[in-house]
């Protein structure tokens, strides 16, 4: 280790901003970080770093920084609120405290360690933010309580569901992610039973049991301290259109129910073909030929490398379509390279264009999976039709004003890969 780097490491550990001036831009440590940043960071990226330290002062001229103040609890709260793309930490009490936090371990993954880490003296670690499927959706206030004088009291404060209003839809085989915020003061180890139930016939579609909700026996919960309990809900592959209820029930060790079950949310499995239009997340108004309108689409704004997600196209049949067309959904990198695609007959090969009737409204879902090594960046989604018997022949595409679109496809919104 060079003398300059040794002094810099000492300075970072001590947090003495006065030492900042000792490092020149060509310092190996700063150079390593800035070189990595130039090669991998996006224009809107920012790195969080402990404020008022030499490390912040050294990086600030070369890397956009977000200074964080306080100990591990305060820094964790700031990261949860701001969710910066990167966090740079030096080993110490703060680093140890953050490493012990499940939220930090889930959302920030190391991407760079300073070159002198093998020396074992205060290495710097750069972490990159990664979203969790439990992050999305909406939080539903529940405030439902069950109690028994002989056992105690349990309260469901809120439920965060990955499907938001107004749709709250679910689809066969596609998981939903649920986080319950619970509190309790009980004298028995209660188990939680989450059930997805069809309202039409009361049939149980999915059920899961948590013997230790939140990973902690209920008898060990601290009164007044919230507990988060997570569930991955898997609707059956043969889920039919209709309304379903998401219910939570508690049971005592002897199998007796503890209070009444709680309805957390009501969800809908939509029909793919109807005579009434459904509202897309993103309205569009494009057309293909003189027989098909693209009213809009549902798609995430941001996804992660390696993630599977779905683009749902909202079609309207304006007239019969005599040709068997396949729908394509293509994702292109900024340089025009195709990075993901899904082609097929509409509605998962079950409703070809040759059977469309004027007045049909069709929900056409296309799953896409990104390469885990796909670089972070902004990508474009294009959709269109081509003749199943002649793939080079596309159905002409038009924008909302009726102007023809090049290459027979319609561009959707930009997809952020982060």
Q: Please, could you describe this protein's structure?
A:
The protein is mostly beta strands and 418 residues long. It has 3 domains: 3-129, D-Maltodextrin-Binding Protein, domain 2 (3-Layer(aba) Sandwich), CATH 3.40.190; 138-269, Immunoglobulin-like (Sandwich), CATH 2.60.40; 273-417, Immunoglobulin-like, CATH 2.60.40.770. 14% of the residues lie in helices and 42% in strands. It contains 7 helices and 26 strands. A 7-stranded antiparallel beta sheet has the order 14-21-18-16-15-24-25. Helix 4 crosses helix 5 (93-99). The longest helix has 13 residues, at 28-40. The chain is flat, with a radius of gyration of 27 Å.
Question: Helix fraction?
Answer: 10-25%
CATH topology of the largest domain: Immunoglobulin-like
- State the secondary-structure class: mainly beta
Overall pLDDT confidence: 89
Topology:
Layout: H1 3-14, H2 28-40, E1 47-50, H3 54-59, E2 65-68, H4 72-82, E3 86-90, H5 93-99, H6 102-107, E4 108-113, E5 124-129, E6 138-148, E7 152-161, E8 176-186, E9 191-198, E10 204-210, E11 227-233, E12 242-251, E13 262-269, E14 273-274, E15 282-288, E16 292-298, E17 302-303, E18 308-317, E19 325-332, E20 338-344, H7 346-349, E21 361-369, E22 377-387, E23 390-394, E24 397-398, E25 404-405, E26 410-417
Parallel strand pairs: 1-2, 1-3, 17-26
Antiparallel strand pairs: 3-5, 4-5, 6-7, 7-8, 8-11, 9-10, 9-12, 12-13, 14-21, 15-16, 15-24, 16-18, 18-21, 19-20, 19-22, 22-23, 22-26, 24-25
């Amino acid at each position: 280790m060079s003398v300059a780097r040794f002094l810099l490491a000492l300075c970072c550990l001590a947090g003495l901003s006065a030492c900042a001036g000792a490092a020149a831009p060509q310092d190996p440590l700063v150079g390593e970080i800035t070189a990595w940043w130039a090669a991998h960071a996006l224009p809107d990226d920012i790195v969080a770093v402990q404020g008022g330290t030499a490390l912040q002062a050294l990086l600030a001229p070369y890397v956009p920084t977000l200074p964080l103040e306080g100990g591990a609890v305060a820094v964790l709260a700031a990261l949860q609120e701001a969710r910066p793309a990167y966090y740079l930490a030096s080993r110490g009490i703060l680093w140890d405290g953050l490493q012990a936090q499940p939220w930090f371990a889930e959302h920030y993954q190391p991407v760079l360690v300073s070159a002198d880490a093998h020396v074992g003296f205060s290495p710097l670690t750069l972490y990159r933010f990664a979203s969790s499927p439990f992050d999305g959706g909406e939080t539903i206030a529940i405030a439902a309580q069950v109690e028994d004088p002989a056992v105690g009291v349990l309260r469901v404060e809120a439920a965060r569901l990955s499907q938001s209003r107004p749709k709250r839809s679910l689809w066969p085989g596609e998981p939903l992610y649920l986080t319950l915020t619970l509190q309790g003061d009980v004298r028995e180890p209660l188990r939680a039973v989450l059930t997805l139930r069809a309202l039409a016939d009361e049939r149980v579609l999915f059920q899961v049991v948590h013997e230790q909700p939140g990973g902690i026996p209920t008898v060990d919960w601290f009164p007044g301290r919230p507990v988060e309990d997570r569930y991955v809900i898997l609707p059956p592959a043969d889920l039919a259109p209709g309304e379903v209820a998401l219910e939570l029930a508690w049971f005592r060790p002897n199998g007796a129910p503890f209070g009444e079950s709680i309805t957390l949310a009501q969800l809908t499995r939509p029909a793919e073909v109807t005579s009434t239009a459904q509202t897309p997340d993103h309205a569009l108004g494009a057309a293909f030929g003189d027989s098909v309108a693209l009213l809009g689409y549902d798609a995430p704004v941001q996804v992660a490398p390696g993630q599977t997600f779905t683009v749902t196209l909202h079609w309207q049949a304006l007239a019969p379509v005599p040709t068997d067309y396949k729908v394509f959904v293509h994702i292109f990198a900024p340089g025009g390279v195709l990075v993901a695609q899904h082609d097929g007959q509409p509605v998962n090969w079950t409703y070809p264009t040759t059977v469309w009737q004027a007045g049909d409204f069709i929900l056409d879902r296309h799953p896409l999976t990104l390469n885990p090594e796909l670089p972070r960046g902004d990508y474009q989604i294009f959709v269109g039709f081509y003749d199943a018997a002649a793939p080079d022949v596309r159905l002409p595409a038009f924008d909302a004003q009726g102007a023809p679109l090049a290459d027979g496809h319609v561009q959707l919104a930009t997809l952020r890969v982060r």
